[in-house]
Specification:
single chain, alpha+beta, 2 domains, four-stranded mixed β-sheet, three-stranded antiparallel β-sheet, elongated
């Protein structure tokens, strides 16, 4: 298989694997991947996954890549805060939640990190569409709860202030009824107490 044939066959793929290539050419040899990497035609993201070097990287593309290189997973925590405009800072690590073990990848395009959560708590995300592609990201309510779940030491006014949440955006995006319903699904009194203090702080911020 020639590179131009690969490019045409997988032109609609954000991320592709050796198996994807072999659906086009059963006899394809993986050494061609090394050759194409040396020529900068393709980039290896993580073991077994590649992108075309001319792929335009943006937030949506990075989110789709995160979902695929470590599945099942969804975008959450600080990256979700940035996506929704809850915090003023740009976030340079693509943070996700997964039912698999906690793991991180440093890749040519970004650093991807995944926090492990119990399958019972793997919910509260939605599928966002961009063009013909999609990615999974936590709803605003779940992103906040995921953050408190994984940061059990956050419980004081000073720590809430350090989160730098935009109160106006929080009030507009977070459905309080849904937020409390989701909170109760964790069945953790300590979490409920800390989140209750946070809500009181946001109300008076």
């Amino acid at each position: 298989m020639k590179y131009v044939e690969l490019k045409e066959g997988l032109k609609d793929f954000t991320l592709f694997s050796l198996n994807d290539i072999r659906l086009l050419d059963e006899q394809f040899h993986r050494r061609r991947l090394n050759e194409w990497q040396k020529k900068n035609y393709i980039k290896k993201i993580v073991r077994g996954y590649y992108v075309f070097s001319d792929l335009k990287m943006d937030e949506n593309v990075l989110f789709e890549i995160a979902n695929k290189i470590y599945s099942p997973s969804y975008i959450s925590l600080e990256m979700a805060f940035s996506y929704y405009g809850l915090i003023p800072e740009s976030v340079y690590e693509v943070t996700s939640i997964s039912t698999r073990k906690t793991y991180s990848f440093k890749t040519p395009v970004a650093k991807f990190s995944f926090k492990s959560i119990k399958p019972d708590f793997f919910w509260g995300y939605e599928i966002k569409r961009y063009g013909t592609k999609t990615f999974k990201i936590a709803e605003p309510e779940k992103a906040v709860l995921d953050y408190f779940y994984f940061n059990s030491g956050i419980a004081t006014r000073r720590e809430f202030e350090s989160m730098r949440f935009n109160n106006e955006v929080f009030s507009r995006l977070v459905n309080l009824k849904k937020f409390l319903l989701y909170l109760n699904r964790f069945h953790q009194k300590a979490l409920q107490k800390r989140v209750g203090l946070f809500l009181e702080f946001m109300k008076n911020a």
